[in-house]
Design goal:
- The complex is a heterodimer.
- Chain A is 66% helix and 0% strand.
- Chain A is an all-alpha fold.
- The longest helix of chain A is centred in the first third of the chain and has 22 residues.
- In chain B, the strands form 3 sheets. In chain B, strands 7-6-5-8-9-10 form a 6-stranded mixed beta sheet, sandwiched between helices. Chain B has a 5-stranded antiparallel beta sheet with strand order 1-12-14-4-3.
- By secondary structure, chain B is α+β, with helices and mostly antiparallel strands.
Chain lengths: 176, 815
């Protein structure tokens, strides 16, 4: 053994927590349910059965896609598919312009606003900026076309840009 | 088309999405030239992207649930391995054997065979014939077979199937900790212990402890050895780990080229993923299902809602994909999916038995430090770094050490120290410290520097172009009238933005730096060409002629073949123009390429994540960055078998040389800049100590060991090893040889120098981050202890910072 399983271990180290966060968000779990961990464990079990050379170049998208399909199955059984549908807006609090201006923390305000967007836009945006996936990889995970992903991300970012035009003007040049 | 569909490509462009077609890109660039609103949109999108990346990252870090599949860090040296381990080993050996095909199979006795077959037939959802006979080519089936065992297995261990099933179900009932496939000292009597996997590196013979001239080790026939470029990880049959039956025959990798199909099933055991196990005593599994209750998915694969055999379209291509060319293979081996940062896969050096030619360990020095800064960047954003980002020697070499500079004319001095190995009580640890002659700034030879700066769109983030500007300003402020600076930028177009200018005209240079703006896509190779032309046009004989590349390494347009770039850089190196590379930013850093470019360009590779890091590279260690005092520095250590049984070089995997390359002055090796310190660590197994990794190997049927000869009189029995060094002066082609024999003075660890102790702490930390199989008793607590007592000499406060990083990693890993 030794080296031969290292890649799965490495994959688990790197992805299990992001995957769990992703799965829980899709499920709408508060974090007390066992379903999230089960689904993620299952994905890694399945990974063990894959030929490394084939999966590894798309390891991240592969894992996310496996988890997502599993979530979709669970939700379908519970007739909760609307959670993933594009049109349904979750009843998140909308942030008014006044509130935005008050928010001292731009990050928090942006996240709040993002939470009011349709689920698929949120998902695409999170895969893009949390996982740094390319459009193609996001398309593979979500089972959509690349151009559809492009529209989802564009629509979300455009709304955010318009809502935060002013604070965004001042963010460049701040050393991290 | 809706307006969104029309506008979407602009957003894709702003985000540098690789899927954007060249035509779209061109059209957008044309639009940007004429449309200020579009330019603003792109700019705002990029700022928003930075805000989102940070905000979502922080949100996830704050709400991240507790890990479900925790991988144990400190790992059993075997003394207290739970009973189930043998089943895991059994499972691994079973599958590995299945993987090597008929020859391994034919060796078994009949009852085992029947059992095996039966298990496969009852459990595996795949064709039992195929699975049962261990089709050597079909890795996909072997794992499925393993899975299938969950139902059909019995508990006899050994080869008798069952391993996987037991692994999946037993731990909970036994209350044992989650399995991890540590096969050393598993205590499984009838299960042959694994032999450490020999690995090919740079096309050189695999080194594993079983001595290479011994046909039984199988490593000579390992296909990994013949991997042309050696970066193939060499998971051949012999190279593949689970020793015995398998290691005698060429594995599947031997037929399909350069290996690369490691035994996934081992991963099952290794991961410890029994869904059926609940929280267990001291367990590493924190599943929320109650103890002993089988989780819903503990059954065989077939019971899953999604058929595992059904590949994802485009994501998992069919197994029949023809073997990729070596080049593609190399690319595949990069962890492309880990974010978009790409790190080379590097197999750790194994223990090598001191026997015959293997008594020689040869490598080139390396002064890169990027890996440590990259690890720091990950940890400070609350993520454990991917194992592939951890290069032990770069982490150790990041720190200043107090070694004495050379007397006289030698370009560097050598310090050798040997004491107890803190993570393996019976072993010895050796620190070789090479300290290059430092140079005063006013005695520095004249320099001709060309800054080659990536100003592509991807550099438009606070920690990229703005940090590049601030960093280079630090450097410019150190330079004087005998230095000249030119500046070349590259993006969609390439251009000289500052002709070679005396550094005394600071205002002009700083203004040019200030005026840089990011935008457009990257054509790295065009930029490098131009930078070399400028450097050649202003060549200073006997001085420093150097291109300093600052990039996030996102080369996405033009001839971006690494090989072509490397060739160019090698050519220019011969003309006396060297290349140093500084990486900035995270998210699409092409780490593996930058390492390679700097290595071939006789320069160093650094990663700049903060202004403080820039200060280290460009102010504190400017001499080292600019002035090369020795080139092609090679080290060869010959160990004395009378004293040392086996050795392991820690790190330097990317710089390993063949023994014969040591005296070959045409073979490139590492450079040392003024004031640089290079540290190399060896872990030694003294003669008389137990073997670190050798497993039980059956007696050979057809070859008998020669009768033991009376022991030869040991030669120079008081010497443990001799260090030989070769180097060239920066402008010469002939190397100079030095030798230094070393005796073991039996120094206790406590009495070793602080530098020795600190280097040991960093090495131990690196092995933990890699989850190295050689980490022994290393754990975060030990690292903190080792480092705490070695901080008296800490100019710059880097060691104190290290301690903070270790604490962070400890917290993140939950151990």
């Amino acid at each position: 053994m030794g080296q031969d399983h290292d890649w799965v271990v490495a994959a688990a180290r790197r992805f299990e927590r992001p995957l769990l966060a992703y799965v829980r968000r899709l499920l709408g779990d508060a974090g007390d349910s066992h379903r999230g961990p089960d689904i993620v464990q299952e994905a890694f079990l399945r990974l063990c059965r894959q030929p490394r050379a084939e999966v590894e170049p798309h390891l991240g998208p592969w894992l996310f896609a496996v988890c997502r399909r599993h979530v979709v199955d669970v939700l379908r059984k519970e007739n909760r598919m609307s959670f993933l549908s594009e049109t349904a807006d979750p009843p998140a609090a909308r942030t008014g312009p006044a509130e935005t201006a008050e928010a001292t923390d731009l990050s928090r305000a942006v996240l709040q606003r993002l939470a009011s967007f349709p689920a698929s836009q949120q998902e695409a945006v999170r895969l893009k900026f949390l996982q740094q996936f390319s459009y193609r990889e996001i398309a593979q995970v979500m089972g959509l076309s690349e151009s559809h992903v492009g529209v989802l991300i564009h629509t979300a970012l455009k709304k955010l840009r318009q809502a935060f035009a002013e604070p965004l003007q001042t963010t460049l040049g701040v050393p991290s | 088309m809706t307006p969104e569909e029309l506008e979407a490509p602009l957003t894709a462009y702003a985000l540098n999405d690789p899927g954007l077609s060249a035509a779209d890109r061109q059209q957008i660039e044309a639009q940007l030239a004429s449309d200020p609103a579009a330019r603003r949109a792109v700019e705002e999108t990029r700022r928003l992207a930075a805000v989102l990346t940070e905000a979502l990252g922080a949100e996830q870090a704050a709400t991240l649930p507790e890990a479900i599949v925790t991988i144990p860090a400190a790992k059993p040296t075997g003394r207290r391995v739970a009973g189930w381990t043998k089943y895991v080993v059994a499972a691994a050996v079973l599958v590995a054997t299945a993987g090597v095909g008929y020859m391994g199979w034919a060796k078994w006795t009949k009852p085992e065979r029947d059992n095996f077959h039966q298990v496969a037939a009852t459990g595996a959802p795949t064709d039992p014939e195929n699975a049962g006979y261990g089709d050597g080519y079909d890795r996909q089936k072997a794992p499925v077979l393993l899975q299938g065992d969950a139902r059909g297995g019995d508990m006899n261990g050994g080869f008798q199937g069952g391993g996987a099933g037991i692994m999946l179900q037993t731990p909970a009932t036994e209350g044992a900790p989650a399995p991890r496939g540590d096969t050393k000292d598993s205590g499984a009597g009838e299960v042959p212990r694994t032999v450490d996997a020999p690995r090919g590196l740079d096309g050189k013979p695999n080194k594993a402890i079983p001595d290479r001239s011994d046909p039984r080790s199988g490593s000579d026939s390992s296909p990994a050895k013949s991997a042309p470029d050696g970066r193939g990880p060499g998971f051949g049959a012999g190279g593949y780990g689970p020793g015995t039956p398998g290691s005698r025959v060429p594995g599947p990798a031997g037929r399909s080229g350069a290996g690369g199909m490691p035994g996934a099933p081992g991963g099952v055991g290794g991961l410890g993923l029994p869904s059926g196990s609940g929280p267990v005593g001291g367990g590493t599994i924190r599943s929320s299902s109650p103890a002993g209750t089988p989780a819903p998915i503990s059954g065989p694969a077939g019971a899953l809602p999604n058929d595992p055999g059904q590949p994802l379209p485009a994501v998992a291509p069919p197994a029949s994909t023809p073997p990729a060319s070596v080049d593609d293979k190399e690319k595949k081996l990069m962890d492309e999916s880990e974010g978009r940062d790409r790190f080379p896969q590097m197999q750790e050096n194994p223990f090598v038995r001191v026997k015959g030619i293997d008594a020689l360990s040869t490598f080139g020095v390396d002064v890169d430090t990027a890996s440590y800064a990259i690890v720091r960047k990950y940890l400070s954003s609350s993520q454990l770094p991917p194992a592939t980002a951890v290069r032990l020697e770069e982490m150790v070499n990041y720190f200043p050490y107090a070694d004495k500079p050379p007397d006289g004319n030698d370009p560097f001095a050598v310090t050798v120290e040997m004491a107890d190995c803190p993570w393996e009580a019976q072993h010895r640890l050796v620190r070789l410290g090479l300290k290059a002659r430092p140079i005063d700034n006013d005695k520095r030879p004249a320099s001709n520097l060309v800054f080659l700066i990536d100003v592509s769109g991807s550099m438009n983030a606070p920690n990229r172009l703005p940090l590049v500007k601030a960093s280079l300003k630090l450097l410019v402020n150190q330079l004087g009238e005998k230095d000249r600076i030119a500046m070349v930028v590259y993006a969609g177009t390439t251009g000289v933005v500052l002709n070679s200018t005396p550094a005394s005209e600071k205002e002009k240079i700083l203004n040019a730096l200030d005026a840089l703006e990011a935008g457009g896509s990257t054509n790295g190779s065009g930029g490098i060409q131009q930078a070399y032309e400028v450097a050649a046009g202003n060549f200073v004989k006997g001085g420093t002629n150097r291109v300093i590349l600052c990039t996030d390494g996102d080369w996405n347009v033009g001839t971006t073949s690494t090989d072509a770039l490397v060739k160019l850089i090698e050519e220019k190196r011969e003309t006396g123009v060297f290349l140093s590379v500084f990486g900035f930013g995270m998210g699409n850093l092409r780490d593996e390429m930058l390492v390679k470019l700097a290595g071939k360009g006789n320069g160093q590779y650094g990663y700049i994540d903060t202004l403080r890091e820039a200060n280290k590279a460009f102010v504190e260690q400017m001499g080292g960055t600019l002035v090369t005092v020795a080139k092609d520095v090679k080290i060869q250590v010959e160990f004395n078998p009378a004293v040392i049984k086996a050795y392991r070089l820690l790190g330097y995997e990317k710089r390993i040389l063949a023994a014969k390359d040591f005296h070959d002055d045409k073979k490139d090796a590492g450079e040392m800049g003024a004031g640089h310190v290079v540290t190399a660590l060896y872990e030694l197994v003294p003669a008389g100590a137990p073997d670190p990794v050798v497993g039980k190997v059956d007696e050979l049927r057809y070859q008998k060991e020669p009768a033991p000869r009376p022991p030869e009189t040991p030669i120079k029995a008081d010497e443990a090893f001799v260090v030989k060094m070769r180097h060239k002066k920066p402008d010469e082609d002939k190397s100079v040889l030095r030798e230094l024999p070393i005796k073991d003075r039996k120094l206790d660890y406590e009495r070793a120098s602080e530098d020795f102790q600190f280097a040991a702490a960093v090495a131990s930390f690196a092995m933990l981050l890699r989850d190295s199989q050689y980490k022994g008793q290393s754990n975060y607590g030990l690292v903190l202890e080792l480092a705490a007592s070695a901080k008296t000499h800490d100019p710059g406060g880097y060691r104190a910072e290290f301690v903070e990083l270790v604490k962070k990693a400890k917290a993140l890993s939950g151990k």
